[in-house]
User: Fold this.
Amino acid sequence: MASVFVLLAALLAVTPVRAEDVDVALVLVSDVSRSIDDSEFKLEKDGYSNALTNDKVLEAIKDGPIGKIAVAYVEFASSFEVRTVLDWTVIKDRATAKAFVDNLTTAPRSFWGRTAISAGIDQAVQLLAESGLTATRRVIDVCGDGTNNAGREAADARDDAVKAGITINGLAIINDHPVSWTFAHVQPPGGLAKYYRENVAGGPGNFVLEVHDFHSFGEAMTRKLVDEIASVPVGARFATER
Assistant:
């Protein structure tokens, strides 16, 4: 009998746990640097929550070949200020979406530092690599209101993610009335959306959405999620949401 247990233990040791199959493994990477105040942080959270429970998004999930997506949520500020706030959650219906949203809404803000978009991307890449999920598509959504000003270059982190088969999409929140000390950060030459296209977004079908106020964040996020979950090859494009 003992030998049977030894054999079973050996088989379990070499047999991998079956990964859960999902249509999309998505990491939401959110900027919580000091250029985003508490009211804007709340509007970001509300936007994510409204989008994830939107009927169009839930319908897109349901219509997928598998009918499930997996979502994780990361917050970043400076290069040493990055945190996985919510680990992987499988969303397949309104109930599972609401459970994720409830946890997202109640989670406290993580940081207030500078802006290391690269650190957020790197954390998301690691999460995807260690997820144990089998996903048709792996996507990172980066949301922020400024350029990378800490850590390694955002484009280098983007390039490493793309080489790993990951698509990065962007949501550039435009501050049309910045204070003087943040002007160059939130309004770089050519605009923040241009910066995101050139330094953050990458991979097959990548796109950047531009939002001119935090109140339209939820609507833009809904459009973005539907595009990502539907997995229609639309090619790289730039869309503007006003």
